[in-house]
Amino acid sequence: MSVHRLRRADGRHIYEVRWREGGRGTRQRAATFDRRTDAEFFEVSLRRAKQLGQLSSELLGSNQTLEDFISEWWEKHAVPMLAPGTLASYAPSLDKWIVPYLGRLRMRDLTREAIDGYRASLVAAGAGAPTVNRCLGILQGILQRAVEWRRLSGNPVAGVQRVPHTRSAAIDARSPEIVEAIRAMLSPQDSALVSVLAYEGIRPGEAFALEWDDVLEGSGQSRKRLLIRRALSDHRLSTTKSQRDRAPELFQPVARDLLELYDARGKPNPRKLVFPDSEGSHLRRQNWRKRVWAPALAAAGLTYFRPYDLRHTCATLLIYEGRTVNEVARHLGHADPGFTARTYAHIYEDARDRRVPIEKAIMRARVRSVFVDGNERVAVSRRHKTKFPANQAKPTRGLEPRTPSLRVKCSTS
To answer: Shortest CA distance to 347 belongs to which of 387, 395, 307, 401?
Structure first.
């Protein structure tokens, strides 16, 4: 370990500190400074770090700004390891709420006090509780990587209290009767897709990536469980959100819908998409939502809601059947059963004394009626739809749980 005075091409002198991380035979490293005093101070710091058992990377990293580390983290970890959709959701938070507030701080200055001050600054700037908590979660993940890379000795965000908030109660878990009213307005393929979304509870991106091999056995019979092995994210195939395959139970009414679609298509190749676009490629979520989903809701006389929200119907039906939190979380693909418990706590409370098998609830909805407007109802069966006067049946009471939504803005630049 030594300090060397060097002359640059422009005639200016700089001072270089050289050292080896592991002694003789290891790669030599170097850092340059404009002033001798700075170089000597750094050399002393290196010697002290070595005595304390630290690596020089910890010392160097502590002088790095958070903005520089985030750029390094994005290139080395985020781009190769995270799904495109995750990158798209992280970028706005980084650009608007994290880098402008903390980017200039050195890593060594990221203390618990600094993080508490950052949280208070976001609240004062008008950021909502979900935004603040999301930023803290993203920052905690980034700094955990800094700990693993020996740039920090500890994660200052770990254990920081999140901002309390009451979840929005604006989204209903639509009843099977409502789902059937929507399906009655759709083509066979789109009707089967809504059936999969509502009764199997898979995410739209996962449904768009389904192949017949994920649905059917080699003999052409339906599987006992769906195979969820991939998802469409930002128009590209990727892993599922939890980055793990799963196999939710395939309920018989949904299996019949898929088998009918399979037969109507002429029993296509097992590697073909179950829900392709007109050219045989993956559906584009925005196009399908605009051209198919929204018109179907309007035709059924329903207020617009996201296709994603159909997952809540499946969760509700599973809970009313008596499934445990862990079983529901596993079926929906939630990595944290605690999230499932928090999101659907009110439904578990309501379903305590009610037990309805999910397949029975679906089939009952397919022969019952729901209001479409004030004068008539639509009776929906699995194969056809007919209308009959309003006085021939009583309306069916639906499910009424409420769950939150999360705004995601896309920007990967």
So the answer is: 401
